[in-house]
Amino acid sequence: MIESILPIVIIILKILGIMIGLIVVVLYLTYFERKVIGYMHVRIGPNRVGPWGLWQPFADTIKLLTKEIIVPTSSNRYLFLIAPVLSFGISLVGWAVIPFDADVVLANVNAGVLYTFAISSMGVYGIMIAGWASNSKYAMFGALRAAAQSISYEISMGFALIGVMMAAGSLNFQTIVEAQAGGIWHWYLLPLFPLFIVYWVSGVAETNRLPFDVAEGESEIVAGFHVEYSGVTFALFFFAEYVNMTLISTLISLFFLGGWLSPFEGIPYLEPLFAWVPGSLWLFIKVAFFLYCYLWFRATFPRYRYDQIMRLGWKVFIPLTLVWVVVIAFAVQCRLGPWFN
User: Which of 23, 43, 166, 282 has the greatest count of CB atoms below 10 A from its CB?
Assistant: First the structure.
């Protein structure tokens, strides 16, 4: 009896571990965002709640959980409430196949890349339902712009992933990372650099972050698709956005930067020096760097016009990825360099 229940208990514990970890990451990502942007703007940032303001995320959480949920009278009540739950759920489901170290994964699926891409593309449904169910023109405008932007950049992200899958010869995350073993010169960042740039910028656009946040566009459409939301329903959209930022940063690290592999592999003097560092810590450092870039972009770049965003996706990124996929196909066929053997 115990032997039959034990695997289920282990899976539940893994799920809880991933969820709790993501909650902590999101809480303190909001804290560091305010601190980093405050530093760049020559401000202090949160510093009142707890030492150095470290309890500020918990104060914000309590505030959002205790605020009243206001449902507009003329809205579709059922869809209005289901939209944030849908966005929240989809943002978590994508982590089921993400490896955090060698063999440290909830579900090691052979088609893990395809699964993650399919799940992440569903996030736009929560935004569209929220915009339509609110029965507000501002919310609907934001939802339509978000849907068009998401679909446009998913195409270029898909073509960028084709290059990675061709180089590794697999859709499995473990295999893709293992194919980059051998040190920093074996990472796909070098031969797939144009696809890395396309995937990274498309990921920023996919998560509706500055300079691509026209779905919210406070100066244009009040607050976009979630203008009618308050309290915990707004918090769920907020949570989903930050979880998706973390997911994109993790995927980039796995696809192009060797995931949990050390950059000093194969270097005689440095490899033994850093041999004590666990793989999960290397992955965390890489993910933290890209999350910092998210915050850096928000403090630096102005918002693009909508026509500029569409032009970048359709007229620049898609042709670039198509050309580079052909180049990668030639390199794989000819077994060029250490990446395609």
Answer: 282
